[in-house]
Structure formats: structure tokens, C-alpha cells
Design brief:
- The chain is α+β, with helices and mostly antiparallel strands.
- It is built from eleven helices and seven strands.
- A hairpin with a 5-residue loop joins strand 3 and strand 4.
- It is globular and about 50 Å long.
Length: 208
């Protein structure tokens, strides 16, 4: 393990998760336990041998663990309780990244499930009064739903629940709404967001 040789919490944390791809592996496992093939698919650009090395290192350090999946015959990777405590610093980094995201994807890869971590992280600190509502997120790929409750926000695949409204637009604009970098009025005026259903619910959920 690389060592900075410093008795500092940040230095020692970076010794564990500071290598390239480590925090993105944790991001994927915060979304849910995953097989090796799922991680390859969810981490565009990672080399298979490098992923195997990173998984081995994170497991030996106690950040992740291997276990049998729900089917009982497939090995999945999952975060340990200590590894799961990385959710808060990762969510803080997502919020910190807002100025870096406003320019859009610029050809970078995108996976719909990444919104499941990003949108709640962005909304949780901005929206003080949360309506009880479920809003569909439709950007032409896997349709998602954003559920708002008093306890927070949750994004996942649409489960057949009744939707109060649906927001249609490119992921970058949905992230802009969640971050407060784009108002709903401007998004509609520019034609980058469409809404089906109760617009007042969308305004309340996104504080827009």
C-alpha cells in the first residue's frame, strides 16, 4: 500500500481510497452489490486487470467484501459497514462538483444509475420542505423515479407506482435542476425540459 508517511486522517484515508478508480468502485457499490461483470459495465474505461487489482486491494483493506448473491451461486462485491461510511464524503464531492458539471457531458460516458446517487445528494441539502411525491425521470434510457419523503430522496427504477409528474430532458439538465444551477422556468423556456403531470409538484421537489 502506498504511504504518504503522514500521521493525518486525510493522508491515511487517501492511502486507502485515493488510487484511480477506487472511489468510483465505491460509487457503484453504494448503488448496490454488484458482480464483477456489473462493475465492468458500470465503470466505462476501466481495464479488467486494473479492476481486479483494485477490488483485491479494497477487500484486503476492509472496504469491500465478497458474498453470495440472492441467487446463491453468484459472487457479488459489496461494501462493508466501514466502506459504506464513504457515502457522506462521496455525496459531498458530488455537490462540490457542480461547477464542473454545468458544461455538460462533452462526449463522456454516462450511466443512468449514477443519477441514483447524484440527484438525492444534490437535493438533500437544498430542499428543506419535502413534499410526499413520486416524479418520473425520463431521458430516453432506463426510466427512473424520484421519490420524495420527509426523510429524504431516493432514486431508482420505476416500479409501477403512480407518478405525480414526469420530467423529460437530458441527464445534464436534470442534474442542473437538482443542483439549483438551472431553474425550471429557464429550462422550460429554453425547451430543454418537458413536464407531464403536476408542475407544482416538480417545482416543490426540485425547489425550482
Amino acid at each position: 500500500m502506498r504511504s504518504y508517511g503522514q500521521y493525518c486522517g486525510l493522508a491515511r484515508s487517501l492511502e486507502v481510497v485515493g488510487d484511480r478508480w477506487n472511489l468510483l468502485i465505491v460509487r457503484q457499490l453504494l448503488i448496490g452489490p454488484a458482480r464483477y461483470r456489473d462493475l465492468i459495465d458500470g465503470l466505462p474505461g476501466v481495464a479488467t486487470n486494473l479492476l481486479a487489482d483494485r477490488l483485491r486491494d479494497l477487500e484486503s483493506l476492509g472496504v469491500i467484501e465478497r458474498k453470495l448473491g440472492s441467487e446463491g451461486n453468484v459472487v457479488e462485491y459489496a461494501l462493508t459497514p466501514w466502506g459504506a461510511e464513504l457515502r457522506q464524503p462521496i455525496e459531498s464531492l458530488i455537490r462540490w462538483s457542480t461547477p464542473l458539471m454545468v458544461r455538460g457531458p462533452e462526449g463522456d460516458a454516462f450511466r443512468p444509475e449514477w443519477l441514483g446517487l447524484a440527484v438525492p445528494a444534490l437535493l438533500d441539502t437544498r430542499v428543506k420542505v419535502r413534499p410526499s411525491a413520486t416524479v418520473g425521470l425520463d431521458f430516453g434510457d432506463l426510466p427512473l423515479q424520484l421519490r420524495a419523503t420527509d426523510s429524504g430522496f431516493e432514486v431508482g427504477p420505476q416500479d409501477g407506482s403512480e407518478l405525480d409528474a414526469t420530467v423529460r430532458g437530458e441527464p445534464a439538465y436534470i442534474l442542473g435542476l437538482a443542483a439549483g444551477a438551472l431553474t425550471l422556468s429557464d429550462a422550460r423556456a429554453f425547451g430543454v425540459i418537458e413536464i407531464d403531470g403536476d408542475e407544482s409538484i416538480v417545482r416543490a421537489v426540485f425547489a425550482a
